[in-house]
Amino acid sequence: MRQGNSGMFRLIASLLLALGLQTAALSQELADGEVRRVDRDAKKITLRHGPIASIDMPPMTMVFQVKDPAMLGGLKQGDKVKFSAEKIDGAYVVTRIEPGMQ
Ligand SMILES: [Cu+2]
Q1: Dihedral pair phi/psi, residue 57, rounded to 5°
Q2: Are 84 and 71 spatial neighbours (Cβ–Cβ below 8 Å)?
Q3: pLDDT digit string, tens, across residues 40-87
Q4: Which residues keep their CB under 5 angstroms from ion ligand 1?
Q5: How much distance in Å is there from the Cα of 40 to the middle of ligand 1?
Q6: 9 C-alpha vs ligand 1 centroid, how far in Å?
Q7: Which CATH number fits domain 31-99: 1.20.1050.10, 3.40.50.2000, 2.40.50.320, 3.40.50.720?
Q8: Are 84 and 29 in contact (CB under 8 A)?
Q9: Centroid of ligand 1 to alpha carbon of 96 (angstroms)
Q10: CA angle, 34 as apex, 33 and 36 as ends, to 5°?
């Protein structure tokens, strides 16, 4: 009983560690983008983007949701950005965005 519990604990601990490492690796890969449209009310941003390795996406122009509308702060059409995106519940969501090379 005792041994069973510690084995389970170790399994869960290593799974959590693996997940954490994967998340950290993905969040460091920023894709290039250019702002086409900002919709603060709908919490959406249209980006023309380069390849996004973390979600295996080729370059295109598309609409993303944003995790937090505050992220859209000073962004406007034509701004160059670096960003990361994740697929969350079937939707593509920008989880981080920062100014790129202008
Ligand atoms: Cu895309």
Answers
A1: -120, 135
A2: no
A3: 999 999 999 999 998 999 999 999 999 999 999 889 999 999 999 999
A4: 57, 60, 62
A5: 19
A6: 39
A7: 2.40.50.320
A8: yes
A9: 15
A10: 130
Has residue 21 got a pLDDT over 90? Answer: no
Residues present in the chain in total:
102
- Residue 72, both tokens: 């859209």
Distance 63 CA to ligand 1 centre (A): 8
Residue 88 Cα to ligand 1 middle (Å): 14
Question: How much is the average pLDDT of 25-49?
Answer: 89
pTM over 0.85: no
How far does residue 7's CA lie from ligand 1's centre (Å)? 42
